[in-house]
Write a structure and sequence with these properties.
The structure holds two protein chains of two kinds.
Chain A lengths: L1 E5 L4 E7 L5 E6 L6 E7 L7 E4 L2 E4 L4 H8 L2 E2 L2 E2 H6 L6 E4 L4 E7 L3 H13 L5 H19 L2 H13 L21 H11 L5 E7 L3 H11 L23 E6 L5 E8 L6 H18 L4 H8 L8 E7 L2 E9 L3 H18 L3 H17 L4 H14 L6 H7 L2 H11 L5 E8 L2
Parallel strand pairs in A: 3-11, 12-16
Antiparallel strand pairs in A: 1-2, 2-3, 4-10, 4-11, 5-6, 7-8, 9-10, 13-15, 13-16, 14-15
Helix pairs in contact in A: 1-6, 3-7, 8-14, 10-14, 11-13
Chain B lengths: L3 E6 L2 E7 L5 E11 L5 H11 L9 H10 L4 E9 L2 E11 L11 H13 L3 E2 L2 E2 L1 H17 L4 H13 L13 H5 L3 H14 L1 E8 L3 H11 L24 E7 L4 E9 L4 H12 L5 H9 L3 E9 L4 E8 L4 H16 L5 H16 L5 H13 L6 H9 L3 H8 L2 E11 H4 L1
Parallel strand pairs in B: 2-8, 9-13
Antiparallel strand pairs in B: 1-2, 3-5, 3-8, 4-5, 6-7, 10-12, 10-13, 11-12
Classes of the chains: A alpha+beta, B alpha+beta.
């Protein structure tokens, strides 16, 4: 087992790769009562086409999320109730690129961890139980379809990307989930829920050696092969410049998105993530001249914000909120990016933003979930997220300017709007 | 966990929770005032306008520069409802001394900023700047109208409005759109001077600084706070039971319906009702989750909440329009099951340990601690989480059933789609 101490953020991480390929990370947190476990597979909404036993398989949109729902079923009943007896409420989420199962508890942590590891690694579905879940997930889909935030984001992704499977809604559609059978769920579980495609992270006041032993005892001895995946060929051009729809909302909402150049796994990934975040803050963050100006002109309000996101083969920057002046704001963002590229960034502002970003990232380490998800993403993409202070030191104004020059250009931009019903 | 509570001035109290384990410190200053129809909007507007600037930092730009310089310190304005009190003020979060390069101290400058936001706002000729008032008034009106955008929150609010019409509890934390739209700068300034002079001020700190240092910093920061005729906090009144249940229906352009149900609790046995509610619909192992969702697949969410200070329980669910009756019947059936004590041993154990887990882990989150202690102070309660946990531990099954037998249906709320209504 390898221990790394990160002096600038005051954290230690113990890491060990088991013979079956599972990565185990333990982050000791003395003084905390709560203990938290996060067990994740590198498999999400975008992994719909992959190779199993030498054959390409096309699976229905929403299958990873459906599988997440069904993993709680066990031969004896339901893992929820087993954990409930110990006061732990497990939960799970599926994103584009991962599925994660987690719980926190103050008592019986080890017993709960054993239950988590076994229900996630032992599938138990019947045609009947799979069919029954359709009602629940259909209502989940209906709920998000009525949600303007979800609509505007999903429509933006579909405008940005032509083919990349990251454009597909993680939950799929009411039509696509009808095609899901117990057999396809077993196939997907076999392919992706193998220890060599997974990582267990435990955060809390625990003994690292003990956690690793526990995982070794419960999980299968052997890992599976690497599964080739196909996300689709994605051209540099956006799919559609603009998209809008009417909904029952109180005022117009918008998102403007920029299709950026994706990064490869490894150190490049973290570097681009930090550069993109800094660029986003400098361009349109709360302290930026642009934000201040638009806010005092009443073109944006407190709902306005932006972020930079990355997935395998994708990276994009987007910003938006409620506004009656979507187009004016989108234009102002482009003009400000052009200005920063032309005139450079005020050195004081750059240093201040670097300082503030350090503080923000440090604050994120109060959250066990955030620590676990960061370590998981870092593992899947080959970087160490806790080295962020060093990366912030290394990113220069020139890096940010060249990011803006390359990525924040009119031909890479799309505009997604939700308008009140007329 | 050590809690130090101290009166600093007339109607000014400091709750201090020393802790070394966090990366950040949290500092909060909240005025507690009765929630009323008349004043809710003007009180909600106040912190937003104060957050625009102080005498020393007269606009958001210069405030941001200062916050960035303080390693990304955050100061957010907050508007919360605690029983029938409205709490307005600021919550600040800044990185702990241990992580500040060069040993700079942040507690004192952040306390000063909080004090200035409240006692020395940007004014001109003894008034708030009209452009700040106008801008934030528009934002408040947009926020009130925007509650409609999230149909789940909207349905929950509508149920409370209808059930508690005429009671302060039926008032939204932001007040209503009409009152918000007509707030003049004069009216706002008058409300401001009254609030800072006569409303209870609750200060809260969690972090590594010694309590004496926190007290010193806050006494200095708030030395200019006027104090006269400080009002006592008024306790909330219990919701009077209705003779016959009432049904309210709204129609909107939505694809999923919402069903809300409000119940009155005759019993005043709080721990018993808290446990009873957890069994009924307060966790993902509750009767509602296991039956309405898991067994009948009628919905994605169905949960209940116990409002202790009002003696009511509310149920919230999203269902297909044609399944309203089915869901309604099942919810009533499950309530009767809890009332009749039809449950398995693990359900009661699970509900108990869910609550105990939540109380035990509260000390691991600064935000939860702040919210909990504010709620306690605003409602005149003084139990610690440990004491509440003891109550939950000592509540027998018989007491739970007895308390739940006093729960009766009061108000039913439906949100229907346009097509379903025709």
């Amino acid at each position: 087992m390898r221990e790394t101490f990160y002096e600038r953020v005051g954290e230690s991480v113990f890491r060990e790769t088991l013979p079956n390929g599972l990565m185990v990370c333990v982050v000791p947190k003395p003084g905390y009562v709560k203990k938290y476990a996060f067990f994740a597979t590198r498999y999400g909404g975008m992994d719909v086409r992959f190779q199993l036993n030498g054959k390409w398989l096309d699976t229905p949109a929403g299958i990873a999320h459906y599988l997440e729902h069904k993993m709680f079923d066990t031969k004896e009943g339901n893992a929820l109730q087993e954990l409930a007896k110990n006061g732990a409420e497990p939960n799970a989420f599926t994103s584009n690129a991962m599925t994660g199962y987690y719980f926190d508890s103050t008592d019986h942590f080890e017993e709960n961890l054993k239950i988590l590891l076994s229900f996630v690694s032992i599938p138990y579905f019947t045609d009947e139980s799979v069919a029954k879940e359709q009602g629940i997930i259909s209502q989940e889909i209906r709920m998000i379809e009525d949600n303007p935030d979800w609509q505007i984001y999903t429509r933006m992704m579909q405008a940005l990307y032509q083919n990349h499977t990251g454009r597909i809604s993680v939950a799929g559609s009411i039509e696509s989930i009808r095609e899901i059978t117990a057999q396809t769920l077993y196939d997907c579980h076999k392919a992706f829920y193998t220890p060599s495609n997974m990582i267990l992270t435990v955060v809390g006041d625990v003994d690292p050696v003990h956690m690793v032993d526990l995982a070794r005892r419960i999980l299968p001895r052997e890992g599976g092969p690497v599964i080739p995946r196909d996300y689709g060929e994605e051209p540099a051009e956006v799919a559609q410049k603009e998209t809008s729809r009417e909904m029952e909302v109180s005022m117009p909402q918008f998102l403007t998105g920029y299709k950026c150049v994706p990064a490869k796994d490894g150190a490049d990934w973290l570097r681009l993530a930090v550069t993109g975040d800094m660029a986003c803050d400098l361009l349109l963050g709360e302290s930026s001249p642009l934000y201040q100006r638009l806010y005092s002109q009443g073109l944006i309000n407190g709902s306005f914000g932006g972020t930079f996101e990355m997935m395998p083969g994708m990276s994009y920057l987007y910003a938006g909120g409620d506004s009656n002046h979507a187009r004016a704001v989108a234009d102002a963002i482009q003009k400000e990016a052009d200005r920063l590229v032309r005139e450079g960034i005020d050195p004081d502002f750059f240093e201040r933003t670097r300082r503030a970003s350090f503080g923000d990232n440090l604050r994120g380490l109060n959250s066990f979930e955030n620590i676990a998800v960061s370590l998981t993403e870092g593992y899947f993409h080959g970087y160490d997220p806790l080295t962020f202070p060093q990366i912030f030191d290394a990113v220069s104004q020139e890096d940010v300017v060249s990011f803006l020059r390359e990525n924040i250009t009119p031909d890479r931009a799309v505009l997604s709007q939700i308008l009140p019903r007329t | 966990m050590k809690v130090i509570r101290k009166q600093l001035a007339e109607g000014v109290y400091l709750t201090c929770l020393p802790a070394r384990k966090f990366k950040t410190s949290l500092l909060s200053a909240q005025f507690v005032t009765p929630l009323t129809d008349k004043n809710a909007a003007v009180h909600a507007l106040l912190p937003a306008v104060l957050r625009r600037g102080t005498m020393r930092f007269p606009d958001m730009g210069s405030l941001s520069v200062e916050l960035d310089r303080l390693y990304g310190a955050e100061i957010d304005y907050t508007v919360r409802k605690k029983a029938e009190s409205q709490c307005v003020g600021f919550v600040a979060s800044f990185i702990d001394d241990a992580f500040v390069p060069g040993g700079e101290k942040l507690l004192e400058p952040v306390s000063d900023l909080l004090g200035e936001l409240i006692c020395a706002p940007a004014t001109k000729n003894g008034r708030f700047l009209p452009e700040y008032v106008e801008g934030e008034r528009t934002n408040l009106v947009d926020a009130i109208r925007g509650i409609l955008n999230d149909k789940r929150d909207y349905a929950d609010l509508r149920l409370l409005q209808e059930m508690c019409a005429g009671e302060p509890y039926g008032v939204s934390r932001f007040g209503d759109e009409k009152s918000a739209a007509k707030i003049s700068p004069q009216r706002l300034y008058a409300a401001y001077t009254a609030l800072i002079a006569s409303a209870r001020l609750e200060l809260f700190y969690s972090g590594s600084a010694a309590p004496e240092r926190v007290e010193g910093a806050l006494l200095r920061a708030f030395s200019a706070l006027p104090r006269e005729n400080v009002r006592e906090l008024a306790p909330a009144a219990f919701h009077p039971a209705r003779e016959e249940a009432r049904t309210v229906t709204d129609v909107m352009d939505v694809t999923q319906g919402k069903l809300g149900m409000g119940f009155t609790c005759g019993s005043r046995d709080f721990p018993a009702l808290l446990l009873g509610n957890t069994l009924f619909g307060g966790s993902s192992n509750s009767k509602l989750f296991l039956n309405v969702r898991e067994k009948l697949s009628l919905c994605y969410y169905a949960s209940s909440m116990y409002h202790r200070q009002k003696g009511i329980i509310t149920v919230s669910s999203g269902v297909e329009f044609e399944n309203f009756q089915k869901a309604y019947d099942e919810i009533m059936l499950q309530l009767r099951a809890v009332q009749n004590g039809e449950l398995e041993d693990w359900e009661l154990e699970g509900a108990r340990s869910t609550l105990l887990n939540a109380y035990a882990s509260m000390g691991d989150s600064q935000a939860r601690l702040e919210n909990f202690y504010l709620g306690q102070a605003a409602t005149g309660q003084s139990e610690t989480p440990e004491e509440l946990a003891t109550d939950v531990r000592n509540t027998s099954a018989a007491r739970i059933f007895e308390a739940m037998q006093t729960v009766t249906l009061d108000t039913v709320y439906f949100l229907k789609g346009k097509e379903a209504a025709e």
